[in-house]
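Reviewer 2 asked us to include a model.

Predict the structure of this chain.
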Amino acid sequence: MELGLSGRRALVTGAGKGIGRSTVQALHAAGVEVVAVSRTQDDLDSLVRECPGVKPVCVDLGDWEATERALGSVGPVDLLVNNAAVAMLQPFLEVTKEACDISFDVNLRAVIQVSQIVARGLIARGVQGSIVNVSSQASQRAIRNHTTYCASKGAMDMLTKVMALELGPHKIRVNAVNPTVVMTAMGKANWSDPQKSKTMLDRIPLGRFAEVENVVDVILFLLSDRSSMTTGSTVPVDGGFLTT
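Predicted model (structure tokens):
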């Protein structure tokens, strides 16, 4: 299905690895000019070699001032994918201030900041746009040892709805995609233990984890005009996990 994204300009955070990197690659292949944001220069260097023309921006999104400097003059952006995230796993009674600060700075506050930069630019130009926030099934189901991750992703889902409500009159759509475990390099490493993975797989009606392209396909659909009547939605890519 032709999504008609060619000629647009997109910004993707967390672009160095996993879902973010694959999203950049798919957008680049679709003829989109992409600004790739990551805190790891080596990842950006290799991405630019793979996708010539991608504009790399190396910044830690947990640093508000540095992010403002790095993205304040990034130029016009039509499409935004807020993918950058951290997962700091601790039992509830052992959650630290540092884990709270880092989790909410990156998983929520940075989404607000980057989205403000992009949305203000869209409004100033008088053009429509689309924002996709990469959330998680963990926003809607409690997972042991995931206190700050579940809480920050739950907050992201509500942020998505508020953004959609306030930005809709400016013809800016905002949606979230909520994957299950995704078979990125990190996902494979974290869920390689058959006993651990069985506990999660038993709760997924389709009986498997998501592949990266399953998530990227939904992101591209939500960015495109094919989803022009969809905003404020949280779209599961979870094999039915949230039905159980």
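The CA atoms of residues 45 and 56 lie 8 Å apart. The longest strand covers residues 172-179. We have added this to the supplementary material.
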